[in-house]
Amino acid sequence: MKPEYRQVAYGSRIIEFAVERRDRKTLEIAVEPDLRVVIAAPLKAPQKDIDAKVKKRAAWIIRQQTYFRQFLPRTPDRKFISGETHLYLGRQYRLKVRAGLVDRVRLFRGVIDVETVRPKTQEHIKELVQEWYRSRAKLKLQERLLANQDRFPLPDHFTPHALIVRKLSHRWGSMSPAGRLVLNTRLIEAPTDAIDYVITHELCHIRQPNHGPAFFKLLCEVMPDWEARKAKLERVMA
Known about the structure:
Layout: E1 4-10, E2 13-22, E3 28-31, E4 37-42, H1 47-56, H2 58-69, E5 85-88, E6 91-99, E7 104-108, E8 111-116, H3 122-149, E9 162-166, E10 173-175, E11 180-184, H4 192-207, H5 213-222, H6 226-236
Parallel strand pairs: 2-4, 6-8, 9-11
Antiparallel strand pairs: 1-2, 3-4, 5-6, 7-8, 10-11
Helix pairs in contact: 3-4, 4-5, 4-6
């Protein structure tokens, strides 16, 4: 039996969870080390009872996720100096800063090569690298948007009215009621299959605005492995 995917609100937080129905008498909640929440439920347990149980244990679930989050790999603060590693499409690249006659950033021979007229000015190098990331994000995320629309039987019905790429504080993406898809610039650091998860998730909101059973049914149909992709996103981008 395939898992059912649900979510409940707890204050300002949203708790997403998978329900696995089994031949058992009691309901059990588990928080996995990758932060996933899995509910083992009796075969005929009413959904409202499962949701109520998750809400009742919400504080404990959040504490467990907070505990496991400390063991996920952390991206250190960046100094933008030669030898430092930076993520791009899920891979670590070393930064190479060198003096030059122009300001230019490019991927070259396995490194992020920064040529600059101000090689000793950290803030200037930071601005150059961040602008390169922004420009790459706009190109790559547009490319992945077109690729992920093809997951749907009628791609034209899942076309956002606009794509906006910008820095977001607490979200990887969103779909506005007007059909504007907003994606976090930092997604360019994530593996492509994790980027595809975020985009596909948001495209599903064109048809299903809320995270109800119909939303997760659609998401599972077009991306059966979405949960593994989501876990990779959280692990790599922690």
